[in-house]
Amino acid sequence: MGKDFDTFIENVQDLPDGQEWQLVIRDLTSGPRKYESRYVRAIVSRSPESLPDSDTLWLRFPMGNLHPQPMAIKVMEELGEFMWE
After folding, report:
1. Closest by CA position to 44, among listed 76, 13, 71
2. 57: Cβ–Cβ under 8 A, 6 or more apart, which residues?
3. How many angstroms separate the CA atoms of 62 and 35, rounded?
4. CB under 8 Å, gap of 24 or more: what pairs does 58-63 form?
5. Could you tell me the pTM of the whole model?
6. Cα-flanking dihedrals φ and ψ of residue 10, to 5°?
């Protein structure tokens, strides 16, 4: 069974489907590290079949509302705890 993550996004169409992307995710998996945030480079896809061994990514909008359809995510690399610009 894979892990569950979430991320905040303004528009679902902003996600590049099937491409690598840098984003901040929160780990929703039960346990002591629940809600830990990480800055990662990952592939996100609307189709879980296209990403074998992927985890689940839930999308939240800025006000906290949850998008009804989860996406698949495969973390390629952890970039750190925070996103620096």
Report:
1. 71
2. 5, 6, 7, 25, 44, 70, 71, 72, 73
3. 17
4. 58/4, 58/5, 58/6, 58/7, 58/28, 59/6, 59/7, 59/8, 59/9, 59/12, 59/15, 60/6, 60/7, 60/8, 60/9, 61/8, 61/9, 61/10, 62/8, 62/10
5. 0.84
6. -80, -35
pLDDT for position 25: 93
Cβ distance 52 to 29 under 8 Å? no
For 20-68, the pLDDT digits (tens) are 989 999 999 887 777 888 899 999 998 888 888 899 999 999 888 899 9
Contact 20, 42 (CB under 8 A): yes
Cβ 3 vs Cβ 56: under 8 Å = yes
Bridge partners (DSSP) of residue 78 are 40
